[in-house]
Amino acid sequence: MAEAPIRPHAERDILLDILAVQRQSLIASCHGLGEEQARATPTASSLSLGGLVKHAAFGEQNWISLAFTFWAPGPRPQGGGAEAFEKSFQLGEDETLAGAVASLRLAGQLTEAYFRAIPAEAYEKSLPMPAHPWLSVFQSELSPRWILAHLVDEHSRHAGHADIIRESLDGAKAYPLWRAALGLPPE
């Protein structure tokens, strides 16, 4: 399995590396699946692999949008509300697994660009969060550093869900899927 590179870098670089690995884990869990399998819910949960990938993209895009606007002038985002959050867990009839994967990859590119560009002094600076129902479960002030750590936490949780769902679908396990998704020979 490809793992986060071990380098003597700043915390921000380490967290970005770990986040990239978790994002790739979500994508690898879908390797070789058709649309029907991507929508299947083979466990006690209502989660599907396609829905998890879509949700991870939705969440990452929203957090980065929020983070960016807090350290830039202009209006604050509203997050899409509870309905958009709930819909983010399911592929719509007009959506595809490939589209969800592309959205997650794009979210990753935006995350990398944002966190590599933000000045060090802004990375740890906490600012008040807007009044919004889904933000009320978090502390009242957040920093880009906190948001990046939260994204690692969320993607890791969902990558674990994805491993269980994929194994329930067809018995495929994470490490062989990783290798296949990266075009590497089986171990």
Quote the average pLDDT. Answer: 86
How many helices in DSSP terms? Answer: 8
Query: What about the largest sheet?
Result: 2 strands, antiparallel
User: Shape, please?
Assistant: globular
Structural class: mainly alpha
Proportion of β residues? Answer: under 5%
Q: Report the C-alpha radius of gyration, rounded.
A: 17 Å
Describe this structure in words.
Helix 1 (11-28) runs parallel beside helix 7 (144-170). The protein is 60% helix and 2% strand. It has a two-stranded antiparallel sheet with strand order 1-2. It has 187 residues and is mainly alpha-helical. It starts with 10 loop residues before the first helix and ends in a 6-residue tail after the last helix. The mean pLDDT is 86.
What's this, in brief?
The protein is mostly helical and 187 residues long.
Q: What features would you highlight for this structure?
A:
mainly alpha, 187 residues, 8 helices, two-stranded antiparallel ribbon
SSE layout and pairings?
Layout (H helix, E strand, L loop, with lengths): L10 H18 L6 H5 L9 H22 L10 H7 L9 H21 L2 H4 L3 E2 L12 E2 L1 H27 L3 H8 L6
Antiparallel strand pairs: 1-2
Helix pairs in contact: 1-5, 1-7, 1-8, 3-5, 3-7
